Amino acid sequence: MKSMTKLMVVAMVLVAALVVAPAAARTFDGAAADGNAIYSIADGDAIYVGEENLNFTTLLGQNSGWLVHFSSVSDLAVDKQIPISNAADFELTKTAVGTTTGTYYVFTGSPFNPAGATYRGTVIVDTPSVSLDAVLNNSLIDSVSGKTVTRDNALAFKLTNNLAGFNALPVANQPKMKVEVTLPGGGVTTQFGGQSLGGIAANGTTVHVYNVSLSGVEAGTYTAQAKWYSNQPGASFYNKGFDSNAVTFEVLTKSLAITANKDTVIRGNSFTVTITGESVQEYRLFVKEVSSTVTDHPVIAPGQNGIVTTQDAKNVTVRTNAAGTRSIQFNTSAATEDRSFTIRVEALGTAASSTYDEVKVRVEKGAVTVTSSGTGVYYLGEEITLSGTNTDGNYVYLFMTGPNLANNGVNLENPSLRADIGTANFTRRDVETDDTWSFKWDTAQTQGNRNLDAGGYTVYAVSEPRHKNDLSGALYDTVSVQLRSAFITATTSGATVAKGDDLTISGTAQGNPSNVRIWVFGKNYYGGSSGTLDYITASVESDGSFEEDIDNTIDLASGQYFVVVQHPMGANFGVDLGPGAGQISGPGIPTATLTGLPASEAANALINALDSPNIPDTYVKLTFVVEEPNIFIDPVGDKTAGSTFTISGTTNLAVGDKLNVEVTSAAFQPTSKTEATGFSSVAGTATVQKGDGANTWSMDVDATGFKPDQYIVRVESVETDVTQTATFNVIEGQPTTQPTGNVTTTPTGTETTPTTTTTTQATPTTTPGFGALLALAGLGAVAFLVLRRD
Are 723 and 638 in the same domain? Predict the structure, then answer.
């Protein structure tokens, strides 16, 4: 209970110490043997990581003690303890402090125990931090670190630090730093620009070393860094990583200079000039030897930082930044002359004639290219991709010439617009940031009631809106394009089709139509259901091919049919279904009712409409015949039991159709439980093959297990409802004989002929099955021959 009470009292004392901390009262006790200062530390003083020769006897007497940091004072939760073994000479190391800075409590007692220790006061522990900058002497806020300055400028070195714990001491007793400047040749000095850069007090305030003159210094790169002495007050921080950051700047010899980021620029692109002069100074920047036409020359992009006044787009006043530099962008266009230009910067006033610099930039013409996709030969209606580059402007202007078109060129999308009439008549495309452009030319989408004819055309790509007779001075390129009339080819999968089989109509439609139409006419049939007029739409693939199956032949009557495959030759079909039932119509042709005509006349009426000069469509004609499905079986003939043979035939079914073929014995009689069945059969499938005239089919039969009998062949179509049967006989195979007897071997020189007895094997008695009379007759013939031989 007493221990707990004491802990509470200690916590209250520590909290009170935080609230009422005395002002820092560090005192100078003299110099150590190495020249470093010895400081006495009082309650509330700030001490810094790395310090040596710290005297804590004011707080601890001659005793040892502890610096203690609490994560929670009220709970007396300790997170850092630093022992003070010698109160008269203490060093605060990085290792001891780590990253835990802030208020530390000073205690006596060993080992440290919050309940038994004696509180002596507090100190503030911090890590020293020093920052250096080089600024313009006339502003003190414009840094030149990492920048370029001329020798006309004066600098100031600006030193800031957090060592306010030394501020109450006399300046002579405060830690001292020096600024070391590394020269372009590698030498290091603390005397630079006419100023001494040593003995700078580090006391928590910002210190400037003013009027560091660059006049006459060597041109090149300089590096400055504030460092601690090894034998002055503050030597405790020497060589412990507490020096300042490094500051680098470049000094130029010329008082005014101008450079360009490009020696040559393709017109239509930009370039940038950089002025290097005095800091925050105004200069005149302009293009020399300009004509009255500003657009013939590079122009200064408006609204840029640093432009103070603008006389015109080629003549401005600019102000440099703190580093004495300013970058200004110039733009060029297709109107800019292709020659060298001189960009000049000069001082204002009377010094303009002697203080200036110039740089030359050559502007060159770019180039325009055009190519077409594919081989250069296309069908009317196809889409052609034109593409290329333009390094001379932001747009490319397209026009074409060709047979019976305006001599100076016409618009690609509307041939009725002449290129020599106005800029709007060109096909204009934007040029991308990588100088490329492209245009998809749909040869079917022409406007102005002017369709293109087949023939050779030349496409022009120009950097300006110039027609054929006005290309002098413009950049352009051409590509030749051959346009051919679109066409269509088509064929049927067969001249005849068995009712129920599919009929395939396929072909090629050049000219890039989306689809073609297939019209079918037959007796009382016009393509639609219940006698209505209709067509089939077949999609056209990217390679121009199309294929469509007519899968309703089961509903078609036997007979001849007429097919018309219609190609639109453009975006739309010219002949279409008319306003009334069963009618066709189109521009410039009379409306015709096809459902009132016989099949052949209806097909001819559609063809007459497509042949009209007012209709751009083209077409192809086909015929096919629908027949009742049939299967024929070639005569099989007699086959020997155990042999292998082929059953074949012909059919009007489609190539690829499947046929089920069954071969079964005609025998059908009762058998006992102990007897093997006398019924033999085999089944398989046959695929219809393309034949010379009629299509063919066949199936191989292995009769190894067949008994002599009459057999039935049944062939059935899988796709259509048609079956055919035939019969043939399997007869007994020819009997064989084997020699019998003994062979006697005689001594050498004597030959004895063995006696051989031939025995004829008896023919098994076979009871013919139902309907096997032909087989029985065959067996009788064989028996007669055997008996006659005996």
Answer: yes
